[in-house]
Amino acid sequence: MTTANAGPGASGQAGGRPDMPAERRVPEPQEFVDMQASPEFQDLKRRLRRFVFPMAAFFLIWYISFVLLGAYAHDFMGTKVIGNINVGLLLGLAQFVTTFVITGIYVKFANRELDPRAAKIREELEGPIA
């Protein structure tokens, strides 16, 4: 077949996937450059960075603190809390919990703040979904 969308499961829609829109306008390269300079795109970038950079800094400090405590504060990390469970084990498990919590916070933030703005920008570039 010669079409770009042909393949296993091709259904006449983009990429042969039923969840993809049938067709969207393909913007010219200059339109992408212009959109990147637009106030809407700059606002989207600013909102993303205001969330990501502080959250990444918080997590890196938290992670590095855990590693440094493990390397240099053996007595503290080995302090028994309940039975054979010590502070080091609890802080290690807290790393996993923190990762999941940050992920959940980001998903809520993206759904509320980023995704609607990104969808609007995409619609401006490619037109409404056919």
Keywords for this entry:
elongated; 2 strands; 130 residues
Structure description:
- InterPro entries: DUF485.
- This is Membrane protein.
- The protein is mainly alpha-helical and 130 residues long.
- The chain has one domain (26-126).
- Helices cover 67% and strands 4% of the residues.
- The protein has helices at 29-37, 39-72, 74-77, 87-126, and strands at 80-82, 85-86.
- Strands 1-2 form a two-stranded antiparallel sheet.
- Strand 1 (80-82) and strand 2 (85-86) form a beta hairpin.
Number of helices: 4
Strand content: under 5%
Distance between the termini: 24 Å
Order of strands across the main sheet: 1-2
Shape: elongated
Number of beta strands = 2
Strand-helix topology:
Blueprint: H1 29-37, H2 39-72, H3 74-77, E1 80-82, E2 85-86, H4 87-126
Antiparallel strand pairs: 1-2
Summarize the entry for a quick read.
The protein has 130 residues and is mainly α. Helices cover 67% and strands 4% of the residues. The chain has one domain.
